[in-house]
Amino acid sequence: MSERDNVHYKVAEAARMAGVSASTLRLWESQGLVVPGRSDTGHRQYSADDVARLKKIAWYRTERGLNPAAIRQALDSEGAGLEAGAAMTVVDGDASLGVGRKFRALRHAAGRTLDQVAGDIGIATSVLSTFERTSQGVTFRVMHDLAEYYGTTVSKLSGEDEAELRSLVRAGEWKFWPETSPGVTVQVLADGRNMMDCHRFVLSPGASSDGAYRHEGEEFIHVLSGRFEMVLDGDEFHDLGPGDSLYFDSRRHHSWRNRHDGETVLIWINTPPTF
Known about the structure:
Helix 7 (93-110) crosses helix 9 and helix 8 crosses helix 9. A 6-stranded antiparallel β-sheet has the order 4-5-6-12-7-10, with no helix packed on it. A 3-stranded antiparallel β-sheet has the order 1-3-2. The protein has a 3-stranded antiparallel β-sheet with strand order 9-8-11, with no helix packed on it. 39% of the residues lie in helices and 21% in strands. By secondary structure, it is an alpha+beta fold.
């Protein structure tokens, strides 16, 4: 039995990795889309394969707009897993773990200890240690602050500018940032070393930046669905709905959150790629 087979996740952990709520996971179970295992005490346990299936379900629901019956049929069809995996190009498993290892390598190169970096960033040492080992458990703001601390960007550490340049990216063929921040899914709309970071954000209910950050450049946001709140410099509030756009200087402190009780989807462009 491999180490992957021994890994099991609780409901909240599996939901975070799939970018949905725990109640959504229970709904999918009642619909027969996923059947988690049970611990000796009767609690749900999700394997790595279960989490991969959850991500496929989320993709079919969000990107294809399929209902539960259609999702079930797609998953059960011959080759459905390969089709969804190829279309999503989801970065999970070992690839996702690489982001945490990259941050750990940067810390070692800087000659800093876990306690030193955690203290400088303002997070618990245990949080930083877990992130370096699993690439999970830090917020979007903390990801930015860590990258800035080491003189790099989240985009570079995610391997975005290492990819071969693609001038055309078809719907559903996006690459994904590793899912490190709870409820935040980032889809890459333009590969390669470009002058712009072009992303499609899918935010689960309650997802937020967890604080303000800033960097060089300019940003453009266009909301496709849901409700999105952006706060600039702590006192300028923008409540954005479908069709609304916002352009601002990235050097302004900015924080954000999903204000919708469902998913919020938006286009987010940053130039130059300094996030």
